[in-house]
């Protein structure tokens, strides 16, 4: 699987247009052996674009009904930066049940895993895998493939932005301490807890966080954590 993913990411890097990027999404779907794989990007001006394997009928219904404004997956990912397993969301409301029921009726699987991505100039994107499976099987899949999915999401987003002419800042490696700090922030630890865990002062911790933020071209700490997660530089 690792070699296959490397081949697909190398092919993705050579994508000459959005049609090639769409083909790469189908290749990633087949590599992971899941029902569907989706990349959906929203720019700060509201313009949207996607490369996905969902049935066209479902895309038409989702768009016409403006489900993106009530979809628990979209709302949860937009509010945070951590990966979202659909089965942990609240689907008890009537509107949420309608979205999920319509999706399954149009060929979606009962399980989903979405990674929020935040790019330059307010860009927001989602990278989603969708499949039919039991909870235990799906839990094993997401746990074993999380790092690969983070990498794939990052590379797809970077290539999509490059094809649209968006200038990306060069990547810089995080130091071990910068990685530790962002990982613990992503896990929900407070700064005082992190400083105690790393046996450093909060002032020194702030230096590490600011250093990581600068390297990642992030607007703030939350953006830095989101970028690090999306790039596979840290994992939970």
Automatic annotation (TrEMBL):
<dbReference type="InterPro" id="IPR036693">
    <property type="entry name" value="TF_LuxR_autoind-bd_dom_sf"/>
</dbReference>
<dbReference type="InterPro" id="IPR016032">
    <property type="entry name" value="Sig_transdc_resp-reg_C-effctor"/>
</dbReference>
<dbReference type="InterPro" id="IPR000792">
    <property type="entry name" value="Tscrpt_reg_LuxR_C"/>
</dbReference>
<dbReference type="GO" id="GO:0003677">
    <property type="term" value="F:DNA binding"/>
</dbReference>
<dbReference type="GO" id="GO:0006355">
    <property type="term" value="P:regulation of DNA-templated transcription"/>
</dbReference>
<keyword id="KW-0238">DNA-binding</keyword>
<keyword id="KW-0804">Transcription</keyword>
<protein>
    <submittedName>
        <fullName>Putative transcriptional activator protein TraR</fullName>
    </submittedName>
</protein>
<feature type="domain" description="HTH luxR-type">
    <location>
        <begin position="167"/>
        <end position="232"/>
    </location>
</feature>
<keyword id="KW-0805">Transcription regulation</keyword>
<dbReference type="InterPro" id="IPR036388">
    <property type="entry name" value="WH-like_DNA-bd_sf"/>
</dbReference>
<dbReference type="InterPro" id="IPR005143">
    <property type="entry name" value="TF_LuxR_autoind-bd_dom"/>
</dbReference>
<dbReference type="Pfam" id="PF03472">
    <property type="entry name" value="Autoind_bind"/>
</dbReference>
<dbReference type="Pfam" id="PF00196">
    <property type="entry name" value="GerE"/>
</dbReference>
């Amino acid at each position: 699987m690792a070699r296959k993913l490397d081949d697909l990411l190398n092919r993705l890097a050579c994508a000459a247009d959005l049609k090639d990027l769409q083909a790469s999404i189908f290749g990633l779907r087949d590599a992971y052996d899941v029902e569907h794989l989706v990349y959906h990007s929203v720019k700060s001006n509201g313009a949207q674009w996607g490369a996905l394997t969902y049935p066209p009928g479902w895309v038409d219904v989702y768009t016409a009904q403006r489900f993106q404004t009530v979809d628990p997956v979209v709302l949860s990912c937009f509010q945070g930066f951590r990966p979202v397993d659909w089965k942990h969301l609240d689907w008890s409301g009537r509107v949420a049940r309608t979205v999920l029921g319509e999706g399954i009726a149009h060929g979606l699987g009962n399980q989903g895993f979405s990674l929020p991505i935040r790019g330059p100039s307010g860009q927001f994107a989602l990278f989603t895998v969708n499949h039919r499976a039991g909870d235990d099987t799906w839990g094993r899949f997401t746990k074993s493939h999380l790092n690969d999915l983070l990498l794939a999401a990052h590379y797809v987003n970077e290539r999509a932005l490059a094809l649209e002419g968006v200038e990306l800042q060069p990547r810089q490696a995080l130091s071990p301490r910068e990685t530790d700090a962002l990982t613990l922030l992503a896990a929900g630890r407070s700064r005082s807890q992190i400083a105690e865990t790393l046996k450093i002062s909060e002032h020194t911790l702030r230096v590490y966080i600011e250093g990581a933020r600068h390297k990642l071209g992030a607007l703030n700490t939350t953006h830095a954590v989101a970028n690090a997660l999306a790039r596979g530089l840290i994992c939970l």
